[in-house]
Write a structure and sequence with these properties.
single chain; alpha+beta; 7-stranded antiparallel beta sheet; 7 strands; 31% strand
């Protein structure tokens, strides 16, 4: 697939430079070829396991008009559960920890997780991260 994308991108350059008319017709093809999309669907509640170390941005949610977050590196073996349904062709999906108490203790700073207004965390992951670093997991 990568080779096909490379060949098509090389062949498309002269046409992209010729004029806007041809570009208008080729643009959807170019977008489709170069966008990372899911090749499978994810349903709400699906369980995934981190199969290789993964750098993520963890969103912290609060019972206030504020959402914070921090960067973190998830080790192999952490289980995540899909919060939303992502149909085939999506660009990503949002996950929550399958074991929230253990996850919060291990990754979220104590000052944040002990705050009375703290309500949880979520992890928005791109298609690339899902394909490269997650595998479907078994029930925990």
């Amino acid at each position: 697939m990568k080779t096909l994308r490379l060949v098509l991108s090389i062949l498309a350059w002269p046409f992209l430079l010729v004029g806007g008319t041809l570009l208008a017709y080729l643009w959807p093809l170019v977008i489709w070829l170069f966008s990372e999309r899911l090749r499978f669907s994810i349903s709400e509640g699906d369980l995934f396991e981190v199969s290789s170390p993964l750098r993520v941005f963890i969103l912290t949610h609060w019972e206030a008009p504020y959402t914070g977050g921090f960067k973190c590196k998830l080790p192999v073996g952490v289980y995540l559960r899909a919060v939303t349904t992502a149909p085939k062709g999506s660009r990503g999906c949002r996950f929550v920890p399958a074991e929230p108490s253990e996850f919060l203790t291990q990754f979220v700073p104590q000052k944040e997780r002990t705050s009375p207004q703290f309500s949880g965390v979520s992890l928005p992951l791109s298609t690339r991260a899902i394909r490269r670093h997650l595998q479907r997991g078994q029930a925990v």
